């Protein structure tokens, strides 16, 4: 693990593996996780790609910032980190909330992105009901801590039949997240815009991945996005829910490597 100090004083922890002169691949985790979500991908891609996996602000070993963290703040953190690492152009991979951060990166500095991977995520704007739910959940996490929520949603994040070690890893990440950081992200996501018009004009190749059993972002939503994107491939991962990169890493890595080789 390394870390970088951003201009606003936030310290971002990250892993960077693989040849420094290879194609950069940036992995953005979702909520409420950390960069260890990507452990199978770092191991699989390291021989041939320069892979960078940060902890978002508020998560993992990065600085916890209370209040509200909008998606554009997360996106600008990614850009600042990559500037410090001397990475100008890169492939961007995001899962769940990380996918929405990736879409915000496309909006803010799309010219730096050479290819895009969106896994188990939604480009639609937040609904009124969703805004209320996220704000209420933020307050609940601050009041109760992370464990009750982690216990409640574990088998929505990963399928009940997934490997015990995967379930343990996911539960551990959720419980280890600081409630202040998680609450700040929830408040920020409550205000997310509609990324669909932006993505229909995406000028680079895109890979869409979704777990066949994902209840948060169902296959039908990924299919609709696939139909709207000009240069996209859709991969449905059987036997996986919301985190196919951990639940079915061989299938996920095969699709990702194939896309990276062809993009």
From TrEMBL:
Keywords assigned: Hydrolase
Segments forming domain AB hydrolase-1: 25-255
Membrane-crossing segments per the record: none
Annotated SUPFAM superfamilies: alpha/beta-Hydrolases (SSF53474)
One annotated GO molecular function: hydrolase activity
Pfam families tied to this protein: Abhydrolase_6 (PF12697)
InterPro entries: AB_hydrolase_1 (IPR000073), AB_hydrolase_fold (IPR029058), AB_hydrolase_sf (IPR050266)
PANTHER family reported in the protein's UniProt record: MONOACYLGLYCEROL LIPASE
This protein's name: Alpha/beta hydrolase
